[in-house]
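Order emerges. For instance:

***
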Amino acid sequence: MSEIHILSSPTRLVVRTPAGDTPLPALWLRALSPDPSQRDPLTGQRLINPHLLPVDLELTAARWDGPRLHLAFSDGFAGDYDADELLAGTVLSEECPEPRPWGSDLAPLPIYQWPDLAQDTVLYQALTDFIERGFLLVHNTPTQTDSILSIARRFGFVRETNFGAFFEVYTRPKATDQIDLSYQSVALGPHTDNPYRTPVPGIQLLQCLQNETSGGLSSLVDSLAVAAQVRREDPEGFALLSRIPLRFEHRDPQTQLVAIKPMIELNGNGDMMGVHYSPRLENIPLMSEADTRSYQRARRRMGELFDDDAYALRFRLEPGQMMMFDNNRVLHGRTAYNAAEGHRQLQGCYIDRDGPRSLYRVLHRSLHRTLTGTSA
């Protein structure tokens, strides 16, 4: 268990664990002051600029005042601190569940009924599943034109693109406004949408309105599980895929979108968040012959695993059923279908990646208050 201890000569604080002591620097402590003169109580935003604190700032005094710490600093400021909040601040955390990679044997699937998501407790569990697994399946949704937007707003804010606030996917004659292969009845391999954008739409919702065909099975693949396998087999190849930038492009008569980014997406801590993957839209940069072969070896293996049945979930979407997935983490695709059998129509939209995570934190806080009767 972690505990804060006061040491003297000179005065300093440490976090004590079985593994040893971790010092808490005076500059770090000073910037975390919750005092109303330093931080607005309503917004939690600082009223001072910590970038301007003196580099040689020191802790001059420290004492326990009941459960709180009273600290004084060499710049003349003194104030009270909550020890639990300081301990929480020693860990960089988004305060969300950790991702849990999965394969084709995932069970049970995270399936929810749309009417049940009106309850905050059910929505909280759905958000937990979504953050951990990267996708949700929602059944019994309304299927009016643009109803996808009201569904999306339960989870976050709709992001409009050149495809509109929402888009419809069905077979269109090649001579009309067909600007993407998704408007044909051909199979679509696992891919992420819109890698040519900056930023990429983080979450996609796809809802079935009609499905009169025997084909067109939807598929989902977890890039975290696939990339972990690539990393085990070929660490250098994984590093190349996370470092070498690709050029992604989409163009139509009204639009030309270009983005340059690596295939594998890492966060600020160096942890993998997902991929930018759409073989029909990208080009690798000019490299040496050796580097090109090394890159191709890793890219080929990644592609093989994305197509491997051991990693794919496949299912038929019926009218009123919807899948919501993290567009960077979870690749999606479909099998081919015969448009002559009948009509297959989906509608979809995008929301930003941070929406469900924000809602999770808000519900976590409010449900915790309800259960404990506290203001935490």
About this structure: The longest helix spans residues 354-372.
